[in-house]
Amino acid sequence: MDYDRVKEVKAFDDTKAGVKGLVDAGTMNIPRIFIRPPEEIAQDLNCLTIPLQVPVIDLSYIEKDNHRRKGIVDEIRIASEKWGFFQVVNHGIPSSVLSKMMNGVRAFHEQPSEVKQQFYSRDRMKKVRLVSNSDLYLSRSANWRDTMSISLLLSDHLHPDELPLACRDSTIEYIKGVSELGDTIFELLSEALGLKPNHLRDMECSKGRGFACHYYPACPEPDLTLGTSKHSDPAFLTILLQDQIGGLQVLHENQWVDVQPIVGSLVVNIGDLLQIISNNKFESVEHRVLANRIGPRISVACFFRAFAASSKLYGPIEEMISEEIPPVYREFLVSEYITNFHSKPIDTSGLDHFKL
Ligand code: OGA
Ligand code: NI
């Protein structure tokens, strides 16, 4: 590297204005800390995106029709094994709750910088904070994205006053809806693994939620950077709300596939921790977000990752192990997983560290 990257990264971080600050200042050439290594860009040019669709699963009538529920469980099993990703429609969260959440996140990121800067922090103990690039000091190139995060990793308790005024009511409603949906999906995933419906919930997989409220400003040079680098998720499960702009891609059979936005839908994906406890039956698939000349793009990821201070040991579930299929991973605490995740750039695997 022929420049003092750390110095430039720190100068950017010290503005506390994020990528949105650069765009507001009229930046037409993206600063070099955001530019991907040339070999990475070249690799992408050789790689076509294929016109496939991530499975779309209709969740209507799952409680009322047992036959239908079995069919849905099958669809979820196949999607979780083959794609690690699916979209859900008729999931029970009213579209007004989704659009209000989006508007709230947008309002948060678009408030005057003096107000926003007060939230800017890299202290992961803070329940609510704003940061640009959680791995800013570790990654080779920064992403064209700012994120407001809400952490319920230590406890479920959240007083409305702890939330930014700009998105308070919408966030409370969305958290309630997505948490209930998470419980339902964990039931279906348990059944898809051949376990009792409450198995994953009893393991507290649906506890310890974290919300990443992303803001991807329009990018003047989208071919040189990414909105989010390729990564797999540090969670059991992620439920993602995205707007209609698009840019999310999943790596499927070594090719990038666009996750087409569908109005009113939510994207669900298997995270590293579910790949581990399912002993590789379900796959935590790599995904990324392209930068775009059009923006802002808004998305909200809800990660279910168990309470950070949990004393439970997680490893492959007994029922997932047999003589033919020995355990692939050792047991560990969630806190150990999280510490490891944050010690590396997001584009390196969080799984290897726990392989036997
Ligand atoms: C994430 C993620 C995708 C998006 O937050 O882990 O993959 O569309 N987000 O913002
Ligand atoms: Ni992700």
List the bound ligands. Answer: N-oxalylglycine, nickel (II) ion
End-to-end distance: 36 Å
The overall pLDDT, averaged over residues, is 95
CATH class: Mainly Beta
Roughly how much helix do the residues carry, as a percent range?
25-40%
Biggest sheet layout: 8 strands, mixed
Please state the second-level CATH architecture.
Answer: Sandwich
Question: Class by helix and strand content?
Answer: alpha+beta
C-alpha-based Rg, rounded: 20 Å
Shape: globular
Number of strands: 12
| Secondary-structure element order, N to C | HHHEHEHHEEHHEEEEEEHEEH
Strand order of the largest sheet: 1-2-10-7-12-5-4-3
Low-confidence stretches: none
Fill in the keyword field for this structure.
10 helices; binds N-oxalylglycine; 18% strand; 12 strands; alpha+beta; four-stranded antiparallel beta sheet; Jelly Rolls; binds nickel (II) ion; eight-stranded mixed beta sheet; 356 residues
Walkthrough of the structure:
- This protein has 356 residues and is an alpha+beta fold.
- The chain has a single domain, classed as Sandwich (Jelly Rolls).
- It contains ten helices and twelve strands.
- It has helices spanning 5-14, 18-24, 38-45, 66-82, 95-109, 113-117, 168-192, 199-202, 272-277, 334-341, and strands spanning 56-58, 85-89, 128-131, 146-152, 209-216, 226-231, 237-242, 248-252, 255-258, 266-270, 287-290, 297-304.
- 44% of the residues are buried.
- Residues 231, 233, 238, 287 line the site of nickel (II) ion (NI).
- Residues 231, 233, 238, 287 line the site of nickel (II) ion.
